[in-house]
Design goal:
Elements (H helix, E strand, L loop, with lengths): L2 E6 L7 H8 L5 E8 L6 E9 L2 H11 L3 E2 L2 E2 L1 E4 L15
Length: 93
């Protein structure tokens, strides 16, 4: 079963192809998505990579979390599913 990974602290110029190339070293990449601000079109500095197997996902996390990629130290971990409507309210703690 495919496993989705969160990839954070990306440069604003990181492309989906760049992430695919990085993660394909560890197994088959099912999908890649860099998240962009819908108003400005600029990258939000994070994205998601879906690996084909749990083993590939674990290998990718171990090898890339904390690694420098395109001049930034990226954070990689298993993505957590958000419940529908679970948006944080800005300004409220």
């Amino acid at each position: 079963m495919a496993k989705k990974l969160y990839v954070g602290n990306l440069t604003y110029n990181t492309t989906e192809d760049g992430l695919r190339n990085l993660f394909s070293q560890f197994g088959t990449v099912v999908s890649v998505k860099v998240i962009y601000d819908r108003d400005t079109g600029n990258s939000k500095g994070f994205g998601f990579v879906e690996m084909e197997t749990d083993e590939a996902a674990s290998a990718a996390i171990t090898a890339t979390n904390g690694r420098e990629f395109e001049g930034r130290q990226i954070r990689v971990n298993e993505a957590m599913e958000k419940a529908p409507g679970d948006r944080k309210s800005r300004g409220n703690w």
